[in-house]
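Appendix B. One record, verbatim.
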Amino acid sequence: MKKVMVFGTFDILHKGHEYLLREAGKYGDYLTVVLARDKTVLKVKKRKPVYSEKKRLENLKKLKIANKIILGSLKDKYSHIIKENPNVICLGYDQKAFTKNLKENLAKRNLFPKRIRLKSFHPEKYKSSVLRKN
């Protein structure tokens, strides 16, 4: 079984997120989504998410795209990657948090998943920061 993993906040869930998840799912047989914790969002984005991690988790489950959805770790951002050992990690087109030196940091942990940067889906319409302004 080929496992794929994606990470994100998925705050104001929109068609761009659905596109990301469906595209990521094409790279394997089993899709795991690691959902950013509220504390992580505040630390990385310097603002609270619109919806709580509990609500964002519920919203992702309703899509019925991912095989598994888990909350990110507050201690070790690599813990879920170590545990799940995905074959592929898909990154959003604008995803920057924790992506710098990802290959090297994973290699230090003896992990060598393929990393794929996915294309955007109408970012002028379907981007959380745009939707938040509206």
